[in-house]
Amino acid sequence: MEWLRGLPKAELHLHLEGTIKPETLVELSKRHDQEPLTLEGAERLYQYENFLGFLMSFKAVTERLKGPDDYELITYNMIRELARQGVVHAEVYVSFGIIFFWKKTEVEPYVDAIERGRERGEKDFGTSVLWIVDAVRHFGVEEGARVFRKAAELKKKYPSIIGIGIGGDEARGPADQFRDLYKEAKDAGLRLTAHAGESVGPESVWSAINIGAERIGHALAAQHDAELIEVLARKQIPLEINITSNIRTGCCKGFDEHPVKEYFESGLMITLNSDDPPMFGSNLLGEYVLAQERYGFTLDQMRELAANAVEASFLDPARKLALLQRVERYG
């Protein structure tokens, strides 16, 4: 485990709002709730039985995020936790959709806050962070347009805003609906990701590819389509794999059924990620340990997975090359 902790790792699929630990939730509750949560009460909010239950848990936790200062707190805490695991770089989803749709307010004060947290965290712990602005797909195309256009506007002021993506319920927000918005975002200089094939079939992954997604989050359902596997392998489209997340949400029946090793052996460009760590009882280091111990990845293969994540990142070429050299020299 210590070898894996020291391996320079990049995290490409991590939701800021999903990094809140129960202890931090208690702190947020003390700030905002008339009757603050106990630690036991907070921990109960992280319990659920299926994917929709997970979405409800996620909502219950994020409802405690009231003001910009809360976002600064969770950003700083996230970077501290990543550094403890040997994560040198992270590309983190932040949901403008939640701020717009649930909070009914503008995002600028919140972006200022996560930037303060990022700058302090990078200075104190050395882990770099880029932001991927996430639209909640089942809020609709109009809300998605608002989110992506705001991301393009703010990118001019904050170079750390690197890309966009769509999360949420795939069944109620097919990727095809966002085709024109993805072209618009690309023209604005934003990089493109999409959650796909997590809770619905391989057609969702095809749709994400067809609208121009450069990286695919989850792609769990790709295993059921041999032609899709062939395309993913040939094009080397990076996949943001989240093993424990897929099990805990019920999207995959069990660890033995997860296709992570099959994907690797089929030549797919996979990366390991943690998604919403406290909600799944894991973190990126835990995912690396799981891959080695349960799926039999060798240490050389673990180094390859770490290199994949750096290569698939949206970092500038110089920083990417420097991190790849660190990975190659490690061990």
From TrEMBL:
Keyword Isomerase tagged: no
Names of required cofactors: Zn(2+)
Record-level Gene Ontology MF annotations: deaminase activity; hydrolase activity, acting on carbon-nitrogen (but not peptide) bonds, in cyclic amidines; metal ion binding
Pfam families: A_deaminase
InterPro entries reported for this sequence: A_deaminase_dom, Ado/ade_deaminase, Metal_Hydrolase
Residue ranges annotated for the Adenosine deaminase domain, each copy included: 8-329
Annotated keywords: Hydrolase, Metal-binding, Zinc
Gene3D superfamilies to which the protein is assigned, alphabetical: Metal-dependent hydrolases (3.20.20.140)
PANTHER family documented for this protein: ADENINE DEAMINASE
Family as reported in the entry's similarity comment: Belongs to the metallo-dependent hydrolases superfamily. Adenosine and AMP deaminases family.
Protein name: Adenosine deaminase
